[in-house]
Every structure is written in C-alpha cells, then in structure tokens.
Amino acid sequence: MTGPSAAELTDRMRDVWSLADFNPVAARVVLVGELLARAVDVHHGDRVLDVAAGTGNAALAAARRGGRVTASDFVPAMLATASRRAAVEGLELRTEVADAQHLPFPDDRFDIVLSTFGAMFAPDQQRTADELVRVCRPGGRIGLANWTPDGLLGRMQPAGGPGPDGPSPLDWGTEEHCRALFGDRISALHSTVRTHEFCAASAAEHMEFLARHLGPAKAAFAELDPAARQQAMAAGAAEFERANRATDGTLVAEAEYREIIATVA
Amino acid sequence: MTQALTDRMRGIWETGGYQPIAATEVLVGELLARAIDVHHGERVLDVAAGTGNAALAAARRGGVVTATDFAPAMLATAGERAAVEGLELRTEVADAQDLPFPDGSFDVVLSTFGVMHAPDHQRAADELIRVCRPGGRIGLASWTPDGMVGRGQSTLPARLQPPVPVPAPTAWGTEEHCRALFGGRISTLSATPHLHEFCAASAASLFDFLNRHLPPIRFLRDQLEPAEWEAMAAQRIEQFESVNRATDGTLVAEAAYLEVIATVA
C-alpha cells in the first residue's frame, strides 16, 4: 500500500499552514534566527536565501547583518507578514513564493542558505537537501535549525510532517542524517545543540496558543471530537510540562534543537 | 547642570533616526531577556528603551512590558514594531532619572545601551532600584570603556570634553561602577562580557551609517570645524578597522559590552 505522493503531501501542507496566522508563534522564536545568522557568519553584501522562511525570522536576522536577503515560502500570506516586519524594521527584504523542493533560482545563486524549522518539514527530504546545495555556491554555507528527535518537539511528534510511513522531519535534527542527505557535496559540517525556551502562563495555555496559531496543530485538532481534542491537548500539555524548568507556576519549556552549519564543496 | 544636559540630550534625540541602528542590535536585547529569565506575566520595564529592542524581547517571553524613553518619536517606532509582531507593549515618555512609577512596580527592569547615557548616574541607578520590587532583577547592557564604542569618547577634541570630570557613560560597562552605584541595595550582581558585531561594507561605511542615524553624531558634526570632523572620522574609522575580524574586505567589528544582572535586595 502506497501513501500519498510528495506532491500531494506538499499541497496538503500548504493548505494546513495557510489555516492560521503563524506570526505569533514566529515572534516567540526570534532568538533562534538571530543566533543562526551570527553562527553562519553573514557578512555585509552576502546573498542570503531563507528557505521555508515562514514570517522571516532568519531572513530578518541576516538582513540586520547587511545580507541581501530573499525569503521564500510556499505560503504567500506568511511572506506578506515577513515584508511588513522588514518594513517596520527599516530592512530590505525580497520575497518569493517557492516550494523548498523546487527552488526557482539558478545554481550557485546564493552565498548563504538558511532555514529555521522550515526545510525539515518538506516531504521529499533528499530533494530538499539537493536544492539547498544546488542554489548555494561552492564555498558557501548552509545553516539550519532543526528540532531534535529526543527534544520536546520530537516527543510531540509535530503535526504537519509526512505520515508515519515516511521519514520523520526530526531526522534533520541529527548530524548523521544531514551528512547522509548532503553526501560529498559538502566539505565541512558541524553542529551545535541549543535549547529554545517557550514561555507561557501554563502548559495548557501554550497548547491553546498553538492550536490557534500553528496551522498543522489547528488542522489536527479540528478533526477531533471534543473529548478526543481535550485528550490530545492534555497529552501535549503534559509533554510541555515535562520540559518545564519554571517553578513559579508558569511555563518555561526547554525545547532542544540542533544548529547545523555546512560548507558546500 | 544635569537638567540642562538632559534637556539638551532630549533635544538631540528628538530629531529622530536611530531605528536603523537599533535594527542591527536586536540580538543584544534578545540575549538579555533570556539571561534575566523573563517569565510569562512578569511586569517588565525597559528604561531609555529607544525603539524597544529589549522591550520586544521581553514581550516575546510573555512579559507585561512598558517601554519608556524621553524621545516620543522612538517610542512611536517601538509601538509600530510591537504591533507588527502581534505583541502587547505599553509606552510611556519618561526621563530615566525621574521615572513616573511607584516604588516596586516591576519584577524586571532592563536597559540596553540606554540608561548609561543619562547624565546623573547615581540618580538613574537609584531610580532603577526604586521601581524594581525586592527580589526583582535589573538587567543592563552597557558598552565597555575599552571597547570599540567606548574608545570613541577619546576621539573628541579637548574643547568638547566635559569641563568637569563626570564619569563617562561607559563607566556603566564596568562591574565596579555598577556595584558602587547600586551599593547595598542589591543582593547579587553578575557581569558577563559580550561582543556585539557591527557588520558593514567597510569601516568607512559604518561611520557613514552611524553618522546618518545616530542623532548625537549629527549634533557633534555641527559643533566641529570641518578639519576637526575629518580628523575624528579618520580616527573612528581606524578604531573600527582595529576590531574588524572579517578578511573579505567587509567589516565585522567586534564591539565589547558588559551584560549586568543584579537582584534587588
């Protein structure tokens, strides 16, 4: 029995990610893009692509360092938000609607290619990795931030990825898997495990927040009857609570991710 | 004397600008909000907030944030930035030396490259402590005397140096000065050196950028003879180049600052 094709999955994911205003989620994850742009060492004038950019966290961080940045995503509404954010910051940002698996750019077009919690969710992982390498010039760098399998988001089994039969998006959170995807087309790869902190009034409140603003979560919960929804929300909240380091009754959930920097051969 | 200086500084900063510079320093506020461990629901004050970098970072973590500055135009920009991010932010025009809040109103009091510029250091420090509740935290990011920004002070012609030996703003970038200002009213204080990176096409173009967007520099230019201005510019550019770690012809200037976190007794 064969599951849906990558193209069908991609169409479904585009619909799902279009369901909610994602920026409130992105606004809580700004630090990840800022740290990545610094780690990948964007210099003034570098041509930078942010793939599956969402509302542009990594793109904006690169632009702050003087990068000439293009943000691409398959959801036009998210790119519109990215542009509004850039405008109020006084930063230049180009946007282009594009699927991470089919980037509309010539070979070697960019000095730096970034993706924070973006490319990892594309159904065809090999094709996505191929595209990241293709559009990055030899000697250029690819910088990724990916949730790890053993971290909070890994345990949550984030909705929106391919079904249980396909590769898990969280595989991108391991160095081995990234090395396998990039093969000998990279000359160096190093990675750093970091922790992102999700703060909220409580774990339950954070789940309600995600159900409102994270398209895949919203879609998943919409399919459930009230009892099942309540159960799923409670299970999610329990995972956030397990990762909670706050002792004042609020939530400061530690979510592990891997920052990967690869140099294209 | 202090009031006259404050009025003059307000006049300078009210001429506008600065957001293009603030947009390059977002990481400083993000790291400070994380280091000081803002939790959801905490009442946070950003003093001399400018266009709100630290305030926005605290709001991303769920802080209930008020941004104050003595220049209304900058607070208006902070408000616009918050609106695009979907974050709540209160703003209030206020002098850091005379905060319009009752004692103990805040759990966390922040200032990034802000309060350090208030003419009366002691009074500004007293106000930070007064409005912070016992057990609350004060978090500051201040340029160090020997760092790239601090050394700029020495490039001023002697006739523009203050007639009486007031402490330089960058004194706040030393642990001893902060300890002396806070005295016995704090129970702990930790200081961590950081490097901020200023990226530009070249050292000269960073000088031009600061010259365009930093109101005090524009003011200074009006006070100087053309030859004095040229000499100062050349010296500043040389200083930027001396901390440049880029080897590709661009500028990645490492500017030292001190992150100070104090707990109010």
* Helix proportion of chain B: 25-40%
Low-confidence regions of chain B: none
The gyration radius over C-alpha positions of chain A equals 18 Å
Number of strands of chain B: 7
**How far from one another are the termini of chain A?**
39 Å
Major sheet: arrangement of strands of chain B: 3-2-1-4-5-7-6
Order of helices and strands of chain A: HHHEHEHEEHEHHEHHHE
Give the SSE map:
The complex is a heterodimer of chains A (265) and B (265).
Chain A: H1 6-17, H2 23-26, H3 30-39, E1 47-50, H4 57-64, E2 68-73, H5 76-89, E3 94-97, E4 110-116, H6 125-135, E5 136-147, H7 152-155, H8 175-182, E6 186-200, H9 203-213, H10 215-222, H11 226-242, E7 251-264
Chain B: H1 2-13, H2 19-22, H3 26-35, E1 43-46, H4 53-60, E2 64-69, H5 72-85, E3 90-93, E4 106-112, H6 121-131, E5 132-143, H7 175-182, E6 186-200, H8 203-213, H9 215-223, H10 226-242, E7 251-264
Parallel strand pairs in B: 1-2, 1-4, 2-3, 4-5
Antiparallel strand pairs in B: 5-7, 6-7
Q: What does it look like?
A:
The complex is a heterodimer of chains A (265) and B (265). With 265 residues, chain A is of the alpha/beta class. Chain A is 40% helix and 23% strand. Chain A contains eleven helices and seven strands. Chain A has helices at residues 6-17, 23-26, 30-39, 57-64, 76-89, 125-135, 152-155, 175-182, 203-213, 215-222, 226-242, and strands at residues 47-50, 68-73, 94-97, 110-116, 136-147, 186-200, 251-264. Chain A has a seven-stranded mixed β-sheet with strand order 3-2-1-4-5-7-6, sandwiched between helices. In chain A, helix 3 packs across helix 4 (57-64). The longest helix of chain A has 17 residues, at 226-242. Chain B is an alpha/beta fold. Chain B is built from ten helices and seven strands. Chain B has helices spanning 2-13, 19-22, 26-35, 53-60, 72-85, 121-131, 175-182, 203-213, 215-223, 226-242; strands at 43-46, 64-69, 90-93, 106-112, 132-143, 186-200, 251-264. Chain B has a seven-stranded mixed β-sheet with strand order 3-2-1-4-5-7-6, with helices on both faces. In chain B, strand 2 (64-69), helix 5 and strand 3 (90-93) form a beta-alpha-beta unit. The A-B interface holds A 21, 23-24, 27-28, 30-31, 34-35, 38, 41-45, 61, 64-66, 81, 84-85, 88-91, 197, 199-201, 246, 248, 250-252 and B 19-20, 23-24, 26-27, 30-31, 34, 37-41, 57, 60-62, 77, 80-81, 84-87, 197, 199-201, 246, 248, 250-252.
